[in-house]
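Is it possible to get an amino acid sequence alongside its tokenized fold?
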Amino acid sequence: MIKKYLTNLIAVVIFTVGVFAISLQVDDKYVSEGIWQSVASTQFNSALCFIFSAIALFIINISYRPLWVRFLCRISVGLTMIVAILTLIEYFTNVDLSIAQLFITDVAAQKSHANIELIAALEFLGVGLILTELTRGKTTFVTQVLLPVIFLVAVFITFNYVSGLNYLSNLPFAVNTAVFTSLSIMVLCFGVFYSAPLRRLNYTYQERIAGYFGITFLLLTIIFFSVSVNNNDLTSNVERVDHTKNVLSTTSSIMIDLHEIESIMSDYMLNPVQHNLDEINRLSDSVSKDMRELFRLTKDNTSQKSRLDSLTYLLAYDAANRNASIASKKDSLYNRVLTAEMIYA
């Protein structure tokens, strides 16, 4: 008894989701608030496909279907497939068919991202094919294969969002699918599975084993991608940590050398011996070498590079003042020597 009305309930829920998504596209007053933001992430045409699919699924699941009701069911399925097919043509031919303008105005289309994502278009096409078969009262092998495939793809995309692993980052056509869209497709697949035409199916033992193997394969695939992404993230984090450590170490070395130069410079001004000048020159060369290393480490970071440019200017200014002080000290010593020679001459 529960299964009998479960499909109808799911159809009503999907229909409501589609209506809410469209209303939020038209009036985005509550888009930034909680769950409404997730609902609003569903594209306009995706919401329409959900509405058409829900209408068709509800009609398929009822026992008494007058002629006009069956016609409405076929129209709903047809519209779902038309939107999906046109979207696929647009993706594969790179020709702008203005699919969004099929149902909404240019202004509304610009306001919302109306077109369906590629993977969602494929899933809606599959749903349309399944509903087409069910309207004829058939449950062919195509339906039995497409339904779990669509469901598992939606699960795969949803888990990508829920886990936060982003293992689909290299597949933008899958990542761009809104999480609420994939969740709704999963629920829609549940409704199709428990619909009246499929309720009469009796799977053999071999088919059930094959289904279990399919689910196991999906779980192993998710685990594989998750582990792979975690390993890549770990490697990337280790590289970033090493890079940061090298930057900090080089920066610390520069600071130490500059403090040493300042200290030796103070000693030189009090006791101008050649050894102090040699140490200053050695430390200055070390600072220059470390600065070149810093530029190499931060060549891909624009903000750090701009700071290094400022630091280079300050170091050059400091070196110029230091050289001027050394030259002044040498001149002072030279004048003292001349004065002493003149006195004792």
